[in-house]
Amino acid sequence: MSARIPAVVPAARSAAGVADLRDRCAHNYHPLPVVVASANGCWVTDVSGRRYLDCLAAYSALNFGHGHPVLLAAARSQLDRVTLTSRAFDHDGLYEFCAELGDLAGKQMVLPMNTGAEAVETGIKVARKWGYRVKGVPAGRASIVVAADNFHGRTTTIVSFSTDPTARDDFGPYTPGFRIVPYGDAAAMAAAIDESTVAVLIEPIQGEAGVLVPPEGYLRAVRELCTRRGVLFLVDEIQSGLGRTGELFACDHEGVVPDMYLLGKALGGGIVPVSAVVADADVLGVLRPGEHGSTFGGNPLACAVGRAVVGLLRTGEYQARARELGEQLHARLVGLAPLGVIAVRGRGLWAGIDVDPRLATGRQICERLLDLGVLAKDTHGSTIRLAPPLVISEAELDWAVDALTEALRAR
Ligand SMILES: Cc1ncc(COP(=O)(O)O)c(C=O)c1O
Question: Which residues are catalytic?
């Protein structure tokens, strides 16, 4: 009897080959027409050999650029040792990763997971458990206050408190226990909190909503509110954290320390999905064996890359680059007003740019940018997001803004 040899499917090598296979993948995204074959630093190369400057950086997952040598070296050396144990056994990088990330964030404990959505789910579970076991909320009554226009991921519980119909519609029945208030409004937040409230969950800057920076003092006001009312302050720094805004965390701009950081994206160095819940022992310590887990969470490869990421952030170099180059970026972007830019928001190397909708959609501008060799992504009609890797040079950044200028002129 001959052995069954699995068919080897050759990789699509051309844009046409990819187009032929497109219907084999669920249509849950609407990608720009570029097919990436390789990447290095801030640059990606498509299957025809054309190069593009990456100004999206996988929504901040590539803060350190593609193929950062320190991160690749950490991954490679771990690949040769051990990549997966499951949490049934300890491995020699898990507690080091937790301690190093905890020290960087100024917290005592870390719970490693994989994707951002899992970190958010984990944060919600921990907050509820804390509410019942520590705060004394009656069983099944815990509520969490969230902000309108949030984006925290795609699980059924998370989309239950989304206000975006595309993300939410037809995925019910929805998870109860969430109250939605306008973003940036501390008084509305205060009014939504009662004895059953265990946590407030917000993004310190709303990325998907268009890089919305809340009014100055909002994060401080929410921090004070949570302290006063005995409610945990959970901050989703999955996109805003780890250097993007010019500080380690976006909360640092207001000198605010939440009770829990939810981290992801750049924590995996653009190599593996790594996320984490970071908090003190009085919060994360509520979990007991068997109450929560993940087969891949905290795996040896993830911890090796995560430790190398922590090492890069500890130098402060990436935060400083984001700060300095961010000033250059924002100064140039506001100068685009005569070309139809009606608003520019953001911090550090992160910008949301609203284009007059009568001139072009965000998608059209991103397609023009693609033709000019720049990768960027639109959101909500006429907004363009820029979030280049933090390793971008001044000259490259200028080149990207030059391309945007040209894209806005081309009508
Ligand atoms: C603020 C925020 N939270 C959570 C998530 C979800 O992360 P993931 O796609 O890794 O599940 C994202 C992803 O874009 C995000 O921007």
Answer: 151, 236, 265
Nearest residue (CA) to ligand 1, atom 16: 239
- Cα within 13 Å of Cα(403), Cβ side: 23
DSSP 173: S
pLDDT at residue 14, as a whole number:
63
Distance 377 CA to ligand 1 centre (A): 15
Sheet holding 377-379, edge to edge: 341-346, 351-355, 383-386, 377-379
The predicted model scores a pTM of 0.96
**C-alpha 120 to ligand 1 mean position (Å):** 9
Per-residue pLDDT at 380: 87
The helix (run of H) or strand (run of E) holding residue 82 is: none
* Percent of the chain scoring above 70 in pLDDT: 96
Distance (Å, whole) CA 363 – CA 366: 5
Q: Which of 152, 164, 235 most suits a substitution to test ligand 1, by most atoms within 8 Å of the C-beta?
A: 152
Asked if pLDDT for residue 85 goes beyond 70, the answer is: yes
